[in-house]
Amino acid sequence: MGKSAAKLWRQAPWSARFGFFVIVVYIFLAFFAGLVSPYGETEIVGSEYELPNAQFLLGTDNLGRDMLSRLIYGAQNSVGIAVITTFFAFFLGGFFGLLGATLGGWVDQILGRVVDVLMAIPSLIFALMILTIVGTSIPALIIVMGVLDSTRVFRLARAVSMNVVVLDFVEVSKLRGEGLFYVITREVLPNIMPPLVAEFGLRFCFVFLTLSALSFLGLGIQPPLADWGSMVRDNATLITFGVSIPLIPAAAIALLTVGVNFVVDWFLHKTSGLKS
C-alpha cells in the first residue's frame, strides 16, 4: 500500500502534487483548528480593524477578533459543510441516477422530468429563495444545496450508467435473478466510479463557491461562526482604505478551488488511459 502510494506520488505532475498539498493543509486546519489558531473563534481580543502586527499577524476584524484565528476556523466550517453537502448531493443524485438508468421506463421518465424542472431555475437564485423561507440553519443549508446539486450528479450518474446497464454481464446478472440492489452496487456502480470520483471533486468546488457566495450575501453560515465568505463581507470596508486583508479569505477560497481542480484534472487524465 505504501509503495503504491509512493509510486503514484512520483508519477503525479507538479500541479497535482501542489493540489494534494493544498488539500492536506486545509484538512489539517479543519481538524485541528482549536490547536493551531492563536485565539478562539469568537473571542474579541483587540480593537476594531487593527492592522497586522506582532500580536495579530493578519490584524483584527470589525469586532476586534483575530483575523488569522477566524481564517483557520473558517476552514473547519466552510470546508466541512461543503464536504458534507457534496456527499449528500452524491448520495441523492447518484442513487436516483443509477435507479433511473437500471429500471428505465416510467421511473426514468419521471425522475428525468423532475430534474429538468429543478435545473431550469438558476441554483443560486433558487437557494436564496428557499433559504429566505426556511431559514439559514446549517441543516437547511446542507439539504437545500445538496438537493440542488444532486440534479447535476443525477445527470452524470444516469448518463454513464446507461452505457453499462446494456452490457452482457448486467443482463446475465438480471437473468440470474439478482435483486436491484445487487445489480446497482455490484455490477453498475464499480464500472462508473472514475467519472463519479472526478465529478465529486468538481462538484465540491461548486458547492464550496456557492456556500461562500451565500455567506457573502448573508444567507450562508451565520455569525458568530467563522466563514470565509462572510469574512470578506464584514471587512470589505478596509479595501477602500487600501488594506488588502479582506482579500485573504477570498484567496483561501480560490486556492482550495484551484488545488482541487489540479487533482481532478490529473485523475481524469490518469483514468482516461491517455499517455502524457
CATH architecture: Orthogonal Bundle
The percent of residues in helical segments reads: over 70%
Mean pLDDT: 85
Report the strand count: 0
Low-confidence stretches: none
Query: Would you tell me the structural class of the helices and strands?
Result: mainly alpha
The first-to-last residue Cα distance is: 25 Å
Principal-axes shape call: globular
**Estimated share of beta-strand residues:** under 5%
The secondary-structure element order is HHHHHHHHHHHH
Rg, rounded, reads 22 Å
CATH superfamily: MetI-like
**Which CATH class is shown?**
Mainly Alpha
CATH topology title: MetI-like fold
How many helices? The count is 12
Helices, strands, pairings?
Elements: H1 2-11, H2 14-31, H3 33-36, H4 67-103, H5 105-119, H6 123-134, H7 138-162, H8 168-175, H9 180-188, H10 193-216, H11 228-234, H12 247-272
Helix pairs in contact: 2-4, 2-12, 4-5, 4-7, 4-10, 5-7, 6-7, 7-10, 8-9, 10-11, 10-12, 11-12
Identify the notable features of this structure and list them briefly.
276 residues; mainly alpha; MetI-like fold; 12 helices; 71% helix; globular
